[in-house]
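To whoever is covering the structure queue this week,

Two jobs came back overnight. Logging them here so there's a record in the thread.

Job A:
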Amino acid sequence: LKNPFYAIDMPISYCDQPTGCGTRHASLDGIQMTVDANFAFLSKIPDQCGYIVFADGAIVKSDGDLSNRESTMSVVEKITSVSSTSIPPSTKFNQITVSYPDHFYTISQSGKYTFVVKRKVHA
């Protein structure tokens, strides 16, 4: 899996044990994989002011300006639900950007997780 934010890859490792290799699993063509659920790559995004990771209506991880911002999560859920109803069924968005004069939000989905990153605008 590729990280939805630029060229930073989401850590994924191969798992050859039948019982699994950790708490988070993904299966791709029958190959069991473990996904790092620490989301440490989010702290490496340049000029980020904060982020939220949520799944199933609950915040999984947040930091910075977006720490525990459930109101932001609610707005993002509405944005993603509107975009999924207004595009053809076989198409899925890769990334949505909401821009303001001094900052912008990048919204992306990967698997069951939705990622929201607040970043500063370059001057």
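Job B:
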Amino acid sequence: MALWYFGISSTASTQIKRKKAKIFFFFDMEFAGKFLKPVWRPMMQAARLYCEKPMRSLVAFPVAKVESGKSKYMMAHVYIHGEMGSAKQVIRSLSKAKYHLDVYDELKKEAESMGLCTQGLGGGYLVHDKEKKYIKLYGRSQALGKADHEAAREILQPIYTDHKIDAESGGMEP
């Protein structure tokens, strides 16, 4: 039987602060093997499921939702809380939105329902003509600033492969 000398014993936190802690714990490896073996795998599977759920939500989050006609649009990062490195750039447009922040609020609700966080990158205007298969990105948001229209075009191009997408810089109106 193998015994391991491990652990820290202290009767009061002041002893730890004074570094007068005593090491004491005896651990039987055979007992640990019998105890940990049946519960180790389910514990790891539960941990993996917990860790993978936010990532699955991020992967499943739609990259673009574009309405037809003229609408306000915005770009944003959607990410797992505390993990900005795994952020995903998304585009949302709403024709009924009065302000760009209304578009952001809708996006934020959608992300929070999946347990994700958002950060606005800018806004502009989007004209989507389904019949002509044409999308135009231009302008800026007064509240969020100007979105990178070229980056937005690069995000939309793989989704709307049969559309012609123009990205322009400029003022508030075409």
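Note for Job B: The two ends are 81 Å apart (CA to CA).

Please reply-all if you pick these up so we don't duplicate work.
Q.
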